[in-house]
Amino acid sequence: MMTKTSAISPRKDGPKRGDSARRVYQELRDEILELRLAPGAPLDETSIAKRFEMSRSPVREAIVRLSAEGLVQMLSNRSTIVAPIDIATLPRFIEAIDYLQRATTRLAALHRKDEDIASMREAADIYDHLCHKVEPLALSEANKTFHMRVADAGGNPYLAQAYGRLLDEGRRMLHFHYTSVRREGTEFPLSPAHHQMVDAIEAKDEKSADKLAHEHTRVLNNRMQEFMRVSFLDQPDLMK
């Protein structure tokens, strides 16, 4: 005897947990990098979950990922804050960036492929285009994209990963600088350094690539030191 099988309605799934965690991560990350979430600001999982209309699990997953990138701090009392920016650490940060930038650029000169050169030139052109608009988040993202394409061309994922994390940690400091330029109503000065670095890498000139990478860091250091001196000398509470 045959029985009539009732139709089963298709299951309507909501967003997967991984998708939810990625959305929270991306939005919080942008807010931290743009300083809409101030250094030292508390991050309450319950409030964030309510804001995004989801459970706390994907929120916690996003916060753990942000912590791994050095953008938030999970404190011993189980609370979480946006990672403070400590001006006193700037010299050590610049020192680390210099070592890794020179290493990844030298490796790129040794191991680059033709497609790497095209990718780097594209990233350098995008950065130059954004200089006319002076959108801080877009500029810092474009700067990171260029340098990560150089790092990836070097073929050492361990150095590239460490370098990428440092670039992320420095983006908030760069954001202060880019924002000040925008407030002045001027364009961010175009830097030929990116294109010069690509030229040296394309020529497989390891020595010139190293020299240009070091000079690029020196210019960054001078700009950041001057900006910090002018902007925060009389406002010590803005940063830790």
Could you estimate the helical fraction of the residues in percent?
55-70%
- Give average pLDDT, whole number: 84
CATH superfamily of the largest domain: GntR ligand-binding domain-like
User: What's the order of the H and E elements?
Assistant: HHHEEHHHHHH
State the CATH architecture of the largest domain.
Up-down Bundle
Percent range for β-strand residues: under 5%
Ordered list of secondary-structure elements with their pairings:
Elements: H1 17-33, H2 45-52, H3 56-68, E1 72-74, E2 80-82, H4 90-111, H5 114-131, H6 136-154, H7 157-183, H8 193-202, H9 206-232
Keywords: DNA-binding, Transcription, Transcription regulation
Biased composition (Basic and acidic residues): 10-21
InterPro entries: GntR_C, TF_FadR/GntR_C, Tscrpt_reg_HTH_GntR, WH-like_DNA-bd_sf, WH_DNA-bd_sf
Q: How would you explain this protein's 3D organization?
A:
The protein has helices at 17-33, 45-52, 56-68, 90-111, 114-131, 136-154, 157-183, 193-202, 206-232; strands at 72-74, 80-82. It has 240 residues and is mainly α. It has two domains: 17-82, Winged helix-like DNA-binding domain superfamily/Winged helix DNA-binding domain (Arc Repressor Mutant, subunit A), CATH 1.10.10; 87-238, GntR ligand-binding domain-like (Four Helix Bundle (Hemerythrin (Met), subunit A)), CATH 1.20.120.530. It has a two-stranded antiparallel sheet. The longest helix has 27 residues, at 157-183. The termini are far apart. One of its GO terms (molecular function) is DNA binding.
